[in-house]
Design brief:
The complex is a heterodimer of chains A (about 110) and B (about 110).
Chain A (H helix, E strand, L loop, with lengths): L3 E4 L2 E5 L4 E7 L6 E6 L6 E6 L5 E4 L2 E5 L5 E6 L8 E8 L6 E3 L3 E6 L1
Parallel strand pairs in A: 2-11
Antiparallel strand pairs in A: 1-3, 3-8, 4-5, 4-9, 6-7, 7-8, 9-10, 9-11
Chain B lengths: L3 E3 L3 E4 L5 E7 L5 E8 L3 E10 L2 E4 L6 E7 L2 E6 L8 E8 L9 E2 L3 E5 L1
Parallel strand pairs in B: 2-11
Antiparallel strand pairs in B: 1-3, 3-8, 4-5, 4-9, 5-6, 7-8, 9-10, 9-11
Classes of the chains: A mainly beta (about 110), B mainly beta (about 110).
């Protein structure tokens, strides 16, 4: 069946360092979503990418959708302690309303 | 703001009990979802509903059932709770029949089955 894999599973960075998480799907996606879950919280939607090769920025966060629409990345420039949490990507199952979530990347930022 | 509420933040039940988890959303969303979240496994879809009285199985429906009698309410039922159903349960809702809309999550219910 369709799978969405995320790497790395964990990442510890010093405050001010950059961070990147990668998301890979076994099938082509019509769109991809990214969510952030703070410790003890629930996932919160960050962004949705739809077009092949699309790049979107939110302040220090840069999201990219691959040309083949099978992979995506989230890059954070100059991490801050407020970036701590788990970042999930999610892609829709073809022809349905179901989204498959990646396993997530847990980011820890050391001050 | 969209609000998704879940009936309990923490719940402790005994093996074999019937458990009801309730979820209510206030934004007239068509789609509603139940996930469970376990360390290292991410969010796994149990069931979802795209309309009142409509439901479809997700990836891990075994041992669960759902009910959607009203558009704003989606219930998850554990017919006979087992210890391997100890988990964090998250409800979510979204607009649209296309499924290409952001999901809004509730705060979650941490269920412990002893």
């Amino acid at each position: 069946g369709q799978q969405v894999m995320q790497i790395p599973q964990y990442q510890h960075v010093q405050e001010g360092e950059d961070f990147t998480t990668y998301c890979n799907s076994s099938t082509t996606l019509s769109n991809i979503q990214w969510y952030k879950q703070r410790p003890g919280g629930h996932p919160v939607f960050l962004i949705q990418l739809v077009k092949s090769g699309e790049v979107k920025k939110q302040k220090r966060l840069t999201f990219q959708f691959g040309e083949a629409k099978k992979n995506s990345s989230l890059h954070i420039t100059a991490t801050q302690t407020t970036d701590v949490g788990t970042y999930f990507c999610a892609g829709p199952t073809s022809g349905t309303y179901k989204y498959i979530f990646g396993t997530g990347t847990r980011l820890k930022v050391l001050a | 703001d969209v609000k998704v509420t879940q009936s309990s933040r923490y719940l402790v039940k005994r093996t074999g009990e019937k458990v009801f988890l309730e979820c209510v959303q206030d934004m007239d969303h068509e789609n509603m979802f139940w996930y469970r979240q376990d360390p290292g496994l991410g969010l796994r879809l149990i069931y979802f509903s795209y309309d009142v009285k409509m439901k479809e199985k997700g990836d891990i429906p075994e041992g669960y059932s759902v009910s959607r009698e009203k558009k704003e309410r989606f219930s998850l039922i554990l017919e006979s709770a087992s210890t391997n159903q100890t988990s964090m349960y998250l409800c979510a809702s979204s607009y649209g029949t296309g499924g290409s809309y952001e999901q809004y999550f509730g705060p979650g219910t941490r269920l412990t089955v002893t």
